[in-house]
Design goal:
Layout (H helix, E strand, L loop, with lengths): L1 E2 L2 E2 L9 E8 L3 E6 L4 E6 L8 E4 L3 H5 L6 E4 L3 E4 L2 E4 L15 H11 L5 H5 L7 H14 L18 H16 L4 H14 L2 H10 L6 H7 L5 H14 L4 H22 L2
Parallel strand pairs: 1-9, 5-6
Antiparallel strand pairs: 2-6, 3-4, 3-7, 4-5, 7-8, 8-9
Helix pairs in contact: 2-9, 2-10, 4-5, 4-10, 5-7, 5-10, 6-7, 8-9, 9-10
Length: 267
């Protein structure tokens, strides 16, 4: 029997019932649930997210999840063979709409100049690969308010492609500021589940509800505090994947730029 250290808002409610282990990594196990939402069982070194159950150090290795293993998730317990993991879902919290400024944009750009991948192409610092050029170009359309961003879905390698990560950052801020088009987001999520990975599709789904992993949430909550914003951006870049943190932050930048364009057009 194991006790989770922390748990996101979704396990036990939106994420419940039967599922099977899809991918196993050293610090994370991803489980495809019956509704295709991804439940992630992760090591305590990773941050909290709506779909994550965080275990104490060493517990993930002891449980020994294997690909295709069956699991069942109840209200407060996950069952895997003879193992049980008890968890207490986090309560839903109301986030506050924090509006960016021109200074916020400059601070994010400074941080992204130290990032990796498509962000450096977007800023004109590198030529980048073909897919990074495509991600940067499509991000530019998002920043201009032309929501053709569904073309970003699945663009790039890895379990969370760069294009998906950009959309996750973009949609999260757009939702919190109240201008995310729900129909456009739904089409993006449906395409992600059909054409990309369940891990990134799930992140994009929750972003449309304004819910994101902790390190990205720190950025969204610091948009008006330049010192905190600088720190939060650099932590996101350096601690989330090889380029995923940079890509999510690039999406936030695009949403910030469009937000200011919207405000100026209303003046």
């Amino acid at each position: 029997m194991y006790w989770a250290e922390r748990c996101g808002t979704a396990p036990g409610s939106l994420i419940a019932g039967t599922g099977y282990v899809e991918t196993v990594f050293k610090k994370a196990v991803n489980i495809r649930m019956k509704n295709d939402i991804c439940l992630s069982i992760v090591d305590s070194s990773l941050d909290l997210a709506p779909n994550r159950i965080i275990l104490p150090p060493g517990a993930l290795e002891q449980i020994r999840f294997q690909p295709n293993d069956s699991v069942w998730v109840g209200k407060n317990t996950l069952f895997h063979h003879c193992n049980m993991v008890h968890f207490s879902p986090s309560p839903s919290t109301k986030w506050k709409a924090i509006y960016p400024s021109g200074t916020s944009i400059l601070q994010i750009k400074r941080a992204l100049s130290l990032g990796r991948g498509a962000c450096r192409v977007f800023l004109g610092l590198d030529t980048g690969s073909i897919y990074e050029q495509k991600v940067a170009g499509l991000t530019g359309t998002l920043a201009a308010g032309m929501q053709s961003g569904t073309n970003l879905i699945g663009l790039g390698p890895g379990f969370t492609p760069a294009g998906d990560d950009v959309l996750t950052g973009y949609c999260a801020l757009a939702k919190r500021l109240g201008w995310l088009d729900p129909e456009w987001h739904l089409r993006s999520v449906e395409k992600a589940f059909a054409e990309s990975t369940i891990l990134s599709a799930t992140a994009l789904y929750f972003a449309g509800r304004g819910q994101v992993q902790g390190l990205l949430d720190n950025v969204l909550q610091a948009l008006t505090d330049q010192e905190l914003l600088a720190s939060a951006c650099l932590i996101l870049i350096n601690e989330v994947g090889t380029t995923s943190g940079s890509d999510m932050l690039l999406g936030v930048l695009a949403a910030c730029m469009y937000t200011l364009t919207r405000e100026n057009s209303c003046v």
